[in-house]
Amino acid sequence: VRINLNTKEVDVRRVGSLDPTSVLFEADGPRLFTSQDADSRPLLVYLCGESMDGTDYFVVPTSAATVEGLQDGRLNVRQALGQSWGWLVSTTPDGNPTRAQVASLEDLPQAATPTSGVSLYAERMPLLTIKLTGTNLQAGRVSASVVRTAADKSIKALKKLAHTALEATSIGRPEEKIRRIYDLPVQSVRFASFEIAFGSPLPPDQLAHGEPSDKQVVGAVSTMLKSGLRWLKGDDEAPYERPTSLPVLEALAQLVPPAYGPIERVELSGSLLSRTVPYVLTRKNSASVRKALAAVAPARVAVKVHGLVREFDKDQSSFTLRNVSDGVERHCSVEGDAADVALEAFDIDATVEVVGYELPGTSDIDVLTVAIITPDYNLPSLK
Amino acid sequence: MKLFSGFPEGCPPTEALDPTLSVYRVIKSEQPLPEDFMSLSELGRTRKGVDPCTHFGISVFDTWEGADVARQNFPQLGEFIACGTLSAEHGKIKLTNPLTRHHTWWPCDGIDRVAPFKVVDES
User: Fold this and answer.
1) Any residues with CB less than 8 A from the CB of A52 and at least 6 apart, and which?
2) Hey, is B102 helix, strand or coil?
3) What is this structure's pTM?
4) Best B58, B62, B68, B73 residue to mutate vs chain A (most A CBs within 10 Å)
5) Of A39, A328, B23, B123, whose Cβ has the fewest other Cβ atoms within 10 Å?
6) Which residues of B touch A95 (CB under 8 A)?
7) Across residues A65-74, what is the average pLDDT?
8) Nearest Cβ partner for A26 among B75, B97, B123
């Protein structure tokens, strides 16, 4: 299909011959390549339309840094082409430019342009991209708590699944090694709404004999997460079976939008989900997850206790609560703000109030909030 | 002896191997059709700055993810991904870009190019 635009025509000689200098992506011939204009300045050339009569290319000025960014995954194809206005160049069937019109990426039909967020190489694709959207979530209006929520919730969801994946193997891993699977390197952050992209785990240290590789663990996490999302987003005519695994539902509970607040939708994509087209989770999905959790989970008991944080394990992000109000020593898993408060309480020997859910069959607590309640406690900056 | 009628001399290149792998191709049809497996040469199209032998081959990827990236970045290629297992009888194949996992497959004379393929949702 050829592209027709009603934009200003310019001297086609400006864009040079469009001979490829370096082919960045080929599929039935070069699809994305660099070339040089008539003054030997670098161009990025994208094949956007073709027929028996010739080919259409979207051509933009580029730089070595942009090409490098494309190749190492810092820029995706749409970002690299969208950095500048350019030209729609039509060629003869043998590739010689015959016409050039002023154009920007937005001028082209969507079906002729790259999908947003897709890297040039599959291995540079983010492992997981989480985009939070909502009426009040716009560029310049994203609060720090939203940023923190996105990071915390993804960590909690992946941690839950990584632990479940490893429980299925006979050989365990120390927590600091598992952490690589869920505390992923941030590949990019965007603030139009809010989007955070996580890359693959950092290169592993040497694995012990028989220890599952990161790839195996990530594969198991991927399988579990996909099973949950397929159920959640499956259509009514061909429904997927509801996951019976509690960790899968608990991971989904972390990823769906909260019932209130600025985050109304959560879009998930990335190689972990084998999806470049995102799963869009809405509050309706949040309700489905809550309902499924209620049906599957053993009754989760909410607890509120107070005591002293006597041990804090930074690697496991957990603490031991002693001198507890109900007389039972508690092992508490904690993330985000609550972890910071617990660590502060540990440092200053302050009494804390812990609210959370008791994990079924144990006295362990999955912590929701931690508050310092020692009466004479002052803010750290005022000490 | 495999025949590659009409190909330029030295095409497929000597480095090309007998295929023994599953490959993925982005296609336009919901069910694979012969027109989804035509080379640039058969379509009467030319690309500048490309080895002429490339015009006689068909682009495939050795991972679903590689094909998916191609599909998402270049929607003109098609909407569907077909997977097929190729064997020695299907011609010659060469990995041309380890980063994109792109291979050029040169089908030999007389083989059914469509038969090994079916559309797949994901890897």
Assistant:
1) A93, B43, B44, B45
2) strand
3) 0.68
4) B73
5) A39
6) 46-48
7) 91
8) B97
Nearest-CB residue to A52 (from B44, B49, B59): B44
Question: CA A343 to CA A215: how far, in whole Å?
Answer: 33
Residue in A closest to B73 by C-alpha:
A114
Query: Which residue do the tokens 């400006």 mark?
Result: A14
Written as six digits, the tokens of B1 are 């002896």
Q: Is the CB of residue B79 less than 8 Å away from at least one CB of chain A?
A: no
Taking the CA of residue A147 and the nearest CA in chain B, the distance in Å comes to 28
User: A195-198 contacts: CB < 8 A, separation 24 or more?
Assistant: A195/A129, A195/A130, A195/A131, A195/A132, A196/A129, A196/A130, A196/A147, A196/A150, A196/A151, A196/A154, A197/A117, A197/A126, A197/A128, A197/A129, A197/A270, A198/A126, A198/A127, A198/A128, A198/A129, A198/A130, A198/A154, A198/A270
Helix (H, G, I), strand (E, B) or coil at B28: coil
Mean pLDDT over each residue of chain A, to the nearest integer: 84
Q: How far apart are CA A11 and CA A96, in angstroms?
A: 14
Of A17, A33, A49, the CB nearest to B76: A49
DSSP A26-91: ESSSEEEEEEE-TTS-EEEEEEEEEETTEEEEEEEE--HHHHHHHHHTSS-HHHHHTTS-EEEEEE
Cα–Cα distances (Å) from A186 to A37, A83, A182, A190, A197, in that order, read: 36, 22, 11, 11, 6
Contact map slice: B 10-29 vs A, CB within 8 A:
26
ipTM at complex level: 0.95
Which residue in chain B is spatially nearest to A32 when comparing CA positions? B74
| Helix or strand run (H / E) with residue A305 | strand A301-313
Mutate which: A17, A28, A45, A121, vs B, most B CBs within 10 A = A28
C-alpha distances (whole Å) from B15 to each of B5, B12, B19 are 19, 8, 12
Q: What is the pLDDT of residues A242-295, one digit of tens each?
A: 766 788 988 998 899 988 788 899 999 888 887 667 889 999 999 888 888 878
> Got the DSSP string for A224-249?
HHHHHHHHHH--SSSPPPPP--HHHH
Task: Give the model confidence (pLDDT) of A115-173 as tens digits.
Answer: 887 889 987 777 888 888 888 777 677 778 788 878 888 888 888 888 888 776 555 55
A58 to chain B, closest Cα gap in Å:
12
Q: Is A139 helix (H, G, I), strand (E, B) or coil?
A: coil
Q: Is A219 on the interface with B (CB under 8 A)?
A: no
The pair of three-digit structure tokens given for residue B104, joined into one six-digit string: 């050029």
